[in-house]
Amino acid sequence: MDARYEPKVVEAKWQARWREAAAFRVAGGQPGKKFYCLEMFPYPSGRIHMGHVRNYAIGDVIARLRRRQGFHVLHPMGWDAFGMPAENAAIERHIHPAKWTRTNIAYMRAQLDQLGLSIPWEREVATCDPAYYRWEQLLFTQMVERGIAYKRYGEVNWCDTCATVLANEQVEEGACWRCGKPVRLKPLDQWFLKITAYADELLAGLDTLDGWPERVRTMQRNWIGRSEGARIRFPVADSAAVIEVFTTRPDTLFGVTFLSIAPEHPLVEEITSAAQRPAVAAFRERLARQRAEARPGDEVEVEKEGVFTGAYALPPGGREQVPIFVANFVLMGYGTGAVMAVPAHDQRDFDFARKYHLPIRPVILPPDPDHPGALLPLDPATMTAAYEEEGVMAASGEFDNLSSAAGRQAVVRWLAERGDGRAEVTYRLRDWGISRQRYWGTPIPVVYCATCGMQTVPAAELPVVLPEDVALTGAGGSPLAACEGFVHTLCPKCGGPARRETDTFDTFIESSWYFLRYASPDPRREATGDALRFTPEELARGPFDRAAVDYWMAVDQYIGGIEHAVLHLLYARFFTKVLRDLGHLGVDEPFARLLTQGMVCKETWRCADHGWLLPEEVTEGRCVRCGVSAERGRVTKMSKSKKNVVDPDALIDRYGADTARLFSLFAAPPERDLEWNEEGVEGCYRFLGRVWRLVAQVVTLPAATADTDGGEAGRALTRRLHQTIRKVTRDCGEEFHLNTAIAAIMELANAAQSYLAGPAGTGAVARPAVEGIVHLLNPFAPHLTEELWAALGHPAPLYATPWPGFDEELAKEETIELVCQVNGKVRSRLSVAANAGQAALEAAALADPMVQKWLAGKRPRKVIVVPGRLVNVVV
RNA sequence: GCCGGGGUGGCGAAAUCGGUAGACGCAAGGGACUUAAAAUCCCUCGGCCGUCCGGCCAUGCGGGUUCGACCCCCGCCCCCGGCACCA
User: Fold this and answer.
1) Given phi > 0 = left and psi -120 to 50 = alpha, else beta, which region is A613?
2) Which of the nucleotides in strand B have any atom less than 7 Å away from a protein CB atom?
3) Cβ(A818)–Cβ(A871) below 8 Å
4) Whole-number percent of chain A with pLDDT over 90
5) A579 and A437 together in one domain
6) What stretches of A650-761 adopt beta strand conformation (E)?
7) Number of domains composing chain A
8) Distance A405 CA to B8 C1' (A)
9) How does pLDDT run across A392-440, given as a tens digit for each residue?
10) Same-domain check for residues A378 and A407
11) Which nucleotide, over all strands, has the C1' atom closest to the CA of A849?
C-alpha cells in the first residue's frame, strides 16, 4: 500500500466501485428487519452548503451502520424541485426554470456522490417531474371530493415581493418566511386544505412521538393552540343582533362588566349608535392606518384602547346590561372576534377597565394559603391586578361556592339548557392556504366552466402538465394566466369552453408525501407526454404499492433542520393522515424518530468601512483594504451575506470527503450548533493519516504466529478494543452521540499506536485492534476504511461486512482505580482487583497511608463503599 | 410574559439511576528527527500555593438536601430558539 494517504485517489476509486456494484440498491418486502433512514431532501439551489454536508453525513453514518447491522436499509435522496428561486433566475437571467433546475440537480447529485453517501439513486425523486406531481393532482381531486380541499374567498397573507399568497405557518412575525419582507392581508379566492379537521388528531399524535425532540412537539402543540371553553350568546339590547363570544373561563361569567369586540367585527356597523358612529369610525380608521404602516418586528405591546359603541349587551340570566366596546386588542382571527370582559379575572380586561373607569366585579375568590379551606376577599377598589388563577365562585347566584373547575361545567350546562351557549373548542391553527400565484409549481387541476361551474379535472385527463412556453416577467399575477394556450380548455362535463385554474400548489405539498414515493417508486417515473396518462390499472392500484409502503413506513429516523418544526413536519403529518383516510397507506404518523440537527456556524469579521469581511480579507486582525483593525463578530450561521461560508467543494478538494464528514460529526453532538474551524478540520485529517500509517505498519508485521495474548500490554489493548466496540455501538445506537463515538475510536487508535511503539508489540494483538479501528471508523470515513480493509487483505468490501461484535469477558477490566475519600474529599487512589469485595475494598482503603494520615487517629464513624468505584470514610 | 434548550479550561466539548470534573480534539509551550523547513513522534497543559509528597479553590450566582452534588430541590442572573394581547 501507498505510504501516504491520498484522499482524492482513494475516494474516486471507491465511489466508482460502489456505483458499479449498485452497492446500496435495496428491494422492499424482504424478511428481516427494515430501517428507513431519511434526511430532508434539498432544494436544488445550485450547490450544496455545509448544512447539507452535516445533515447527510449524520444520515449516512446511521444508514451505513444499520446496513452492516443486518437491516434492510432504505436511504434515498431526491429534490424539492419546485420553488421561487428557479423562477427568479428565469426573470433575472432568462434561463428557463426547468433548465436551471435540471442543471442544478445534476451538479448537486455529483456533489452528494463526492461525499460518499450510500444512496440508491434509482429511487431518486424530483418533484417537478410530471410523473411525480400527476399523483399529487389526483390526490388533490380526491381531497376535493372528500371536502378536505375547498375554495374560499377571504383575507389571506400576501407578500408583495414574492407576489404570492402565504399560509399562516409561512408568516414569521408579520414577515414572509422566505424573503423577510412584510406581509399584508389581501382578499382573494383561494384553495385551502382542511387541516383543522385533523387538529385533535395532530395534537394527540404528538404524545405518541417519543422519538421526537420535546421542543418540536411543544412548538407544534403551541401552533395548534387548542383551548377548551364555551361559546356564549349576548343579545344586543334594542336590536336583533347577537354577539357571540368565546371564553375559556365560563366560571367567570357573572363577573362580566362589558364586551370587547374586534374593530373588523361584522356587527360593528349594525350595533353602533348614531351618537357614537363618528368616534367608532375614526377609531377604526386610525387602527387600520397604524396596522398598514406597521413594520414587522415593531413592538406589539401597544396600549389597550377602545371606543364605546353606544350599544349594550344582555348577559345570560337576566342580569343588568353591559356596554359594548370596540377594542384594539381583540383579534378577529381568533375565536369569534368578540370577548366577554371580566376585569377582575383577566389582566387585559383589568387594564381596559381601569383606563375607562368600568366596573370590576370579583366572582372568583382565591384560597387563603395560610388557612386551608378559607378564602381571601377581593376588593375592586384596591385590586392592582386581575386574579387570573382558579378559585371558588362567588356573587354568581346558584353557582356560589363551586370550584372554578366544577363551575365551568355547571355554567356551560346551564347555558346549554337555556340556549344561551354551549361548550366549544377553538384552535389557533387555521386551514392551510395552498394557492400560489407563481409559475414554477404544480398546476391546480381545476377548470371553471360558465355553465357547469367549478370542476376538478377528471383522472382520465390528468396530469395537467405545466406548460413550458410561459413568459416570466415578475410583473405579478399568476404567470399561467397570461398563457392563452393553457388557460383555454374545455369543460370536462359539458364540453363547452372553460378556463383553467392558473394558480399552482404551495411547494410544501410536494414535500408532504415524497417519503412515500421513495418507498414505492412510480414504475413510469421516466415517462413523458401521453405516457403519463393514468391507466385503469394505475387508478385501481392508487398512488402507491401498498405492500411496499406498508413495508417501509414509517420512516425510522428522520433528520433535518429545526426550521421545519411547524411547517413541513406538520404538513407531512397531516398529509399522512389524509392519505391514510383515503385508503392509500396504513400508518398514522410518517416519522417515528426525528433528529433536528444544529446549524453550522462560523466566526465573522467586520470592518467599520468595508462591512463583512472574508477570512482572507483579514490579516492579524486588520482589514486588508484599509489597514484598520477589523472586529471579530459573533459566531453565526454560515451565510453568504456575512461572508463566513465554507464551500464544500473546496473543503473536499483539500482534505477529502472523509475528513469533511468526520469533522462535521466530531466537533459537536448532532443536535447542537457546530462551530466550524479550520484547525479542527486539520486535526481530523491528521487523525485519518495516523490511521492510514497504523495500517501500513501493521501489514508489515509478521502474520499472527503463536496464540499469544501479548502479555500485560497486549491484554490491555485487546480489552480496549472490545470496550471501544461496545461504546461505539452504543453511542451510535438510539441517541447518536457520534462525537463521543469518534473520540472513542481516536482513543483506541492512540492505544494501538502506543502498543506498537512499545517493546512487546506484536502483530497477533495489534492486527485485530487495527482492524477494529477500520471497522468502527467505516460509517464515518467510508472511503478510507474500504481502502484500508482491502490493504489488510480482505477481498469482500467493508460496507457489506457485518458490524463487529464484542466480548463482554474480554472487555472486563482486571483492576480498577479505587478512589479513597475522607469526609467526601479524594485523598488517595489505589489500584485494586476489579472483583474485590466490599470488605476488601474497605480494608484496602483504611490501610492506605494517606487515608490514615487524614484520619489522624480518629475512629471512622461510617464507611461508604461503592463497589468498583470508591470508598468514603466519614469521621 | 409563556414554553423549550443551554451556561463546565484559552477554544470545541466529555462526564448526569448523585460516586475520580475536564475523555477526545484544537490552540499554546518544551523536546526529538532534519543542514533547514514541512510532515511525523514524545512531554507539559483549569487557577493559586508549595522543593518533591502534597494542599486549597474551581462546573453562571446564592441557599438547601446528602457521607458525597456539574447532576436533585428552592430562589435568582445571563445566553440561544420558538410563541406572543389566543380571550
Assistant:
1) beta
2) 3-5, 11-15, 19-21, 23-27, 39-42, 54-56, 67-69, 81-87
3) yes
4) 61
5) yes
6) 674-675
7) 5
8) 46
9) 999 999 999 999 999 999 999 999 999 999 999 989 898 999 999 889 9
10) yes
11) B53
